[in-house]
Amino acid sequence: MKKTLSQRMTLIVSSLLISAFALATLAGCNLLNRKPKELAADLSEYVTLSFEGPDTVAKASVNFDDSSLVRELMSDKDHMYFLSENKDKLDDLVDSISISLSKDEGLSNGDVISYEVSFDKDLATELAILFEKMDDVVVEGLIEITDYNPFDDVTLSFIGDSPYLQVGIEYSCSLDRRVDVQFATDKKYYARGETVVVTATYSEEEALNYSYVTVTQSEKEYTAESDYEYITDAATLLAQTEMFNYIYESFQVYVTAELADATMWKEIPEHVTDTPQQAGDITIDSAYLLVTMDEAGIPAGADVCTLVLIMNVPMSYVEDPDANIDTRYVAVTLPNLQIDADNKLFVAYSNLSLGFPKEDRVFLYDQYITENIKDYTVIEIPVADLPVFPSLTGATETAVAETTAAETSAAN
Fold first, then answer.
1. Cβ of 212: how many Cβ atoms within 10 Å?
2. Least buried of 162, 200, 341, 351, by fewest C-beta within 10 Å?
3. What does the pLDDT read at residue 261?
């Protein structure tokens, strides 16, 4: 069947339109896949550089915002179609980017650090992306470290009396950002004039990174101070002549008064009705200085040091002059003997104790010495080194009264 001219013309136009559409579609595809011109990207716009710590010890870190980089690259109008079609490759490229620093610790103001960038260069070339070189950075604005001596903020005090002084340490940090310092002494007790070594313990890292200081001193020596010092040695004790004179005179008055009463001194029943009398000069049988052991500390209410004298009193009876001379032993104690800063005696004579007469000296030794050995260091004082007890004619109540008034005033 022959086609008319009109039909033939319609067929030709249709063919031309189909061909034109195909060509346009093909051109569009080629346009989308055609590699665009090179796209430059400045990575520094997506990098945040942070510093932590003060000058000389600061650390640096880099934070890379890869999501913002991808978003910016794909928003470029000349590249959006191409990169959309190659989105997976673009993601791989961005994932391959690694940014580090030429130096990231021990930083000081003025240091110059460089960015070290690595990435998949083949993918960058394929996607026509050029990463520009990142500029170097000069470190600045770091807090400067200052020197700090914690002992400038320490107040030292001494508690108690020598040689059992304890150290009190008060620390009041003057810094805005406090350094936590712990102080310790080299031992527990000190004597007057002794060297006290105080050690400071702290975190060097905390001092630098939190307080921004370098601690300049971690140990310091002090000298122990005390207004009073307990007597703990025989030599110092023996130098207290006035004290011994007072004790001797007080004891002589005591013996004279006690013998007049006679109740505790008589030998029963042989001399129950006789009158006792002193039959000779009083002598010192033995002498001791008891000093508390510092390892055990000083118990509350305990005496730190005590002088113990065991006296020998000869006696006879007026009604029986031919009887043998009896001996009575009496313990005399005076606790807490001290000397002041001028080495003058400081003692409360009101604490002088004059014991009861005993026939057995061993009994007194056990009572005052043996029973205290576990708590006290016992220093035996040679009797020959002591001042001699005055003869019977040398003791007077008047002398005792005058000494008591003077010494009690000094002690108070």
1. 21
2. 341
3. 77
Task: Find out whether 164 and 148 touch, Cβ atoms under 8 Å.
Answer: no
Give the three-class secondary structure for 124: helix
CB atoms within 10 A of CB 82: 20
Per-residue pLDDT band at 23 (split at 50, 70, 90): very low
Instruction: Give the model confidence (pLDDT) of 243-296 as tens digits.
Output: 999 999 999 999 998 888 766 676 666 777 788 889 999 999 999 999 987 654
Q: Where are the domains of the chain?
A: 1-26, 35-138, 146-226, 230-411
Amino acid at 271: H
Show the CA angle centred on residue 352, arms to residues 348 and 355, nearest 5°. 170
Q: Once rounded to an integer, what is the mean pLDDT over residues 293-316?
A: 79
34: left (phi over 0), alpha (psi -120 to 50) or beta: beta
Residue type, 120: D
- pLDDT tens per residue, range 353-373: 999 999 899 999 999 999 988
pLDDT value of position 394: 47
- Cα 239 to Cα 62, 342, 345, 387: the distances in Å are 78, 14, 10, 10
- Whole-angstrom Cα distance, residue 260 to residue 256? 6
| Number of Cβ atoms within 10 Å of the Cβ of 301 | 5
- Report if pTM > 0.85: no
How far apart are alpha carbons 244 and 263 in whole angstroms?
28
The token pair that represents 218 in the structure block: 């971690």
Q: 406 φ, ψ to 5°?
A: -70, -45
State yes or no: cis peptide before 54, omega within 30 of 0.
no
Produce one character per residue of 154-192: b if its CB has 16 or more CB atoms within 10 Å, e if not. Answer: bebebebbbbbbebeeebebeeeeebebebebeeebbbb
Helical segments of 75-159, H only: 80-85, 87-95, 121-126
